[in-house]
Amino acid sequence: MIDYRDAVPGDGPELAAMARACFTETFGTLYSSENLATFLHQVFGPNGLPSQISDPDFTIRLATDAGRIVGFAKLGPNALPFPQADDANAVELYQLYVSSSHHGDGVGPALLDWAIATARGQGADTLALSVYVDNHRAKAFYARRGFVDVGRYDFPVGDQIDEDRLMVLAL
């Protein structure tokens, strides 16, 4: 049975390990070992995701199975340059990761429902995210929930720049 709860500081090491594993499994073959290592350290190292658990600007929701983290979603202040970003009261969905062992178990939809409700509860009028251009499964998932592709975003992984698509949902 999947349980959902907010992350606490003690979750940092396990959450970072789960996030690194998900990113590497999904995208690891796209990058040199140096670029991948740089990205994983910057985003999921001690000064990245684990430190954001205690940061009041971020909210992180976990999905657990038998006490083990199998998914998470992270919300925070919008940093994406989507059209009309300056006029929107936007929240950014930085990550929504689900372990491949739990794809199809409803974890992704439950975490996205939480993200949408939380953004609305914070008074946001827009939920924004970026998704890798060739991650067709994720793009379709967000489109089914009403997100609209509004343009290109250059996403750095080490010194490699990938094309992401900016997607927004009017709340």
Automatic annotation (TrEMBL):
Key words, A-Z: Acyltransferase, Transferase
Record-listed E.C. numbers: 2.3.-.-
Entry-linked InterPro entries: Acyl_CoA_acyltransferase (IPR016181), Bact_Acetyltransf (IPR050832), GNAT_dom (IPR000182)
PROSITE patterns noted in UniProt: GNAT
GO molecular function ontology, one term from the record: acyltransferase activity
Domain N-acetyltransferase: 2-171
Organism domain of life: Bacteria
Keyword presence, Transferase: yes
Record keyword Transferase present: yes
Annotated protein name in UniProt: GNAT family N-acetyltransferase
Organism: Sphingomonas floccifaciens
Taxonomic lineage: Bacteria, Pseudomonadati, Pseudomonadota, Alphaproteobacteria, Sphingomonadales
